[in-house]
Amino acid sequence: MAGVSTESVAGIVAGRNPLEYLALSPYTVFLFQAVLIMFFCHILHYPLKKIQQPRVIAEVLAGIILGPTVMGRIPGFTETCFSPASKVGLTLVANIGIIFFLFIVGMEVDLGYIRKNARVALSVGFINMAIPFALGCGIARGLYNEYHNDNSTTISFTTYMVFIAVALCITAFPVLARILVELNLIGDRVGTIVLSAGIINDLVGWMLLALVVTLANADNGIHTLYILLLTAAWFVFLMYPVKIALHYYLKKFTNELATGQPSQMLMVIIIAMVFISSFYTDIIGVHPIFGAFMVGVLIPRDNGYVIRITEKLEDLVHLVMIPIYFAVAGLNVDLGELNRGIDWAYVVAVIALAMVGKVAGGFLAGMINGFRWRDSLAVGVLMSCKGIVEIVVLNVGLNAKIISTRVYSMFIVMALITTFSTTPLALWVYPPRCRNLTSKWSNVLSGLDEKEELLADTTTELSLEQLDRFSFSAVILLLRKIDSLSNLLLLFKDLEDSMNYKEAKAIHLREFTSRTSHLLEASTAGEADTLLNEREYADLVSILAIIEAFSSLLRTKLLTMSLLAPMKNYVMSVNDQVSAPLNLVLKSVAIASMVRTDAESPEVVANYRKLLDECACHVGVLLTAESQVSEKVRLLLLILDHDDRLCASDLLALHFVRQLARANTKIHVYVRLATGYNKQFEQQFDLYLEESAEDVDMRVSYYKEIDEIFSDSTAVKGVEKGLFVVTSDTMQNDSGEITMNALRDAFDVLVVRAAH
């Protein structure tokens, strides 16, 4: 048994200190460190995500708190929990994580996306880099003179200057893309340009960083040239022979590109390629992350192939390895070293130059390309995001001994502040109301505004006598969960024969998360080359598969798509699918989910209210009492809040009842008594209904309080399956009474609201 130490396997029972680092069992301390880091990351991220801040801020802050700045000041904490010897395991896992992360970042780079917006994207990308790069070169002289003696090795001013300039001009593409999705700007003109320019910025930034590392590692000019040539040769080798061979193998010997599903064998090949490429770039004197990035760029994008590969890798990488990497980055920060006035003066100067340079560069590039001033300013603000990529750049510079710990701490503070400020500044500069104005302004320039005026009158311009002229230009079925889907489809079937719409589509709404696969899917949504994949993906998503079958049975052309959106502002994503105020959005919600006592109930209510309040077109929300359709609706019950004046939503409710009267000829109208019995209204509505269904049986009742309706035996005793049609205002005023009675007596409620 020689070579085996009993001490390495002894536990706390034998008196061993579990936090003592032993080379024979390094994993013991590592497991404790990993859990501690992940715990702090999640605790810090919880409040930050409420204000739409990216996870990287929490991860770096966790490292700073656990490092010498805060908890490191507790006697014995650093020596016990993060001793220099124990950091070896953390550093190894962190570096493997960042290699995989850069591989995933490489897969996010869509060169085809750049080509579609090449002229504007190139100008915005390069101008947005040029101004902060120049400012970085300027401040580099002062930083070099003040801090270059902090390093144990001597770095030339040229290398130092280029690194500082790169650190100021870089844009964190992964964080930027997530912010664009969170703010619902992916499909916006500003978002499209920023995303394209961000890819260019990312590519150029990594090239410049590779140059800086090469300059730092090479001891003379000829070595630098050789390293650059070897790097370029490797990139060409990957992009042509390797990429062509990979495509040939996937098409000739597998069916993976057609299905978009990578096999286990392919995952082994791809991971091996990542490690080999990283090994090569490391041994020639360039950081291994560049090799991983190159492999990511060459992965095929057909049928969402990169999305499926990302799904297989991202959980372990983003939940374990990346938090450890950024926490280690935070552990290297010691704000206590910034103990002089000149240090904080440089911190302020670096933050100011980073923000001003990026915002000014984006603003200038936008104005040159004919953007409005607000759009141009939004481009600059969004491009100022630093985040993940900045931290990686700074770590590379610190490990290569280009910058000292003090300068590293300064730039970490700059990265945190610029990343933190991006979302609130973007919302301030480019709020949703201004995006609508920008869209309208563009439509006016192209003549689209006049075309929409000719579609039809809105309900705000209609009276009861004119309702026969009313129509919907398109119908959108908004699908979330399967529990109330059958009720919504039955309602659509009853309406489908009588509605003269031009287009109908079903959208499966899915919650956007921090997953990179969701980011890739969201950023490619709507592109021509992904439409086929969306239809194929419908077969994998049960809700869309049901809709496809339903559409086929009805012989209706119902377009289907899957839409990723953050739940807190999902209505903005829905509005992107709305082509005109005369569209109709239909959604179903189970009443049981609204009245449950668990934590989800308030969120369900808030989401359905948000749709009624913020949607840019007509809305109908079907509140279902039963998850499955037990019988066909036989009785329509309409609640109107007043008889002396009708608002737009009242007229929309009347229109719904008229259309449904073709299939349900028994109607009971309840009108809140305001000025007395209005026989003229009854006669008008009776004539209006007869145009739709001659044998309609209509009764009109008047009420003062809502509970009078539910005491009516014909409505609530379960004699007939009933559907109440109410306006959003009525529902808001009497929500509790209506939902509780609906749930008790098993009738559905259709809540309608006309376009504002």
UniProtKB/TrEMBL annotation:
<dbReference type="GO" id="GO:1902600">
    <property type="term" value="P:proton transmembrane transport"/>
</dbReference>
<feature type="transmembrane region" description="Helical">
    <location>
        <begin position="193"/>
        <end position="213"/>
    </location>
</feature>
<feature type="transmembrane region" description="Helical">
    <location>
        <begin position="410"/>
        <end position="430"/>
    </location>
</feature>
<feature type="transmembrane region" description="Helical">
    <location>
        <begin position="24"/>
        <end position="44"/>
    </location>
</feature>
<feature type="transmembrane region" description="Helical">
    <location>
        <begin position="56"/>
        <end position="76"/>
    </location>
</feature>
<dbReference type="GO" id="GO:0016020">
    <property type="term" value="C:membrane"/>
</dbReference>
<keyword id="KW-1133">Transmembrane helix</keyword>
<feature type="transmembrane region" description="Helical">
    <location>
        <begin position="121"/>
        <end position="143"/>
    </location>
</feature>
<feature type="transmembrane region" description="Helical">
    <location>
        <begin position="88"/>
        <end position="109"/>
    </location>
</feature>
<dbReference type="InterPro" id="IPR038770">
    <property type="entry name" value="Na+/solute_symporter_sf"/>
</dbReference>
<dbReference type="GO" id="GO:0015297">
    <property type="term" value="F:antiporter activity"/>
</dbReference>
<protein>
    <recommendedName>
        <fullName>Cation/H+ exchanger transmembrane domain-containing protein</fullName>
    </recommendedName>
</protein>
<dbReference type="InterPro" id="IPR006153">
    <property type="entry name" value="Cation/H_exchanger_TM"/>
</dbReference>
<dbReference type="InterPro" id="IPR050794">
    <property type="entry name" value="CPA2_transporter"/>
</dbReference>
<keyword id="KW-0812">Transmembrane</keyword>
<keyword id="KW-0472">Membrane</keyword>
<feature type="transmembrane region" description="Helical">
    <location>
        <begin position="155"/>
        <end position="181"/>
    </location>
</feature>
<dbReference type="Pfam" id="PF00999">
    <property type="entry name" value="Na_H_Exchanger"/>
</dbReference>
<feature type="transmembrane region" description="Helical">
    <location>
        <begin position="266"/>
        <end position="296"/>
    </location>
</feature>
<keyword id="KW-0813">Transport</keyword>
<feature type="transmembrane region" description="Helical">
    <location>
        <begin position="225"/>
        <end position="246"/>
    </location>
</feature>
<feature type="transmembrane region" description="Helical">
    <location>
        <begin position="377"/>
        <end position="398"/>
    </location>
</feature>
<feature type="transmembrane region" description="Helical">
    <location>
        <begin position="345"/>
        <end position="365"/>
    </location>
</feature>
<feature type="transmembrane region" description="Helical">
    <location>
        <begin position="316"/>
        <end position="333"/>
    </location>
</feature>
<feature type="domain" description="Cation/H+ exchanger transmembrane">
    <location>
        <begin position="36"/>
        <end position="427"/>
    </location>
</feature>
<keyword id="KW-0406">Ion transport</keyword>
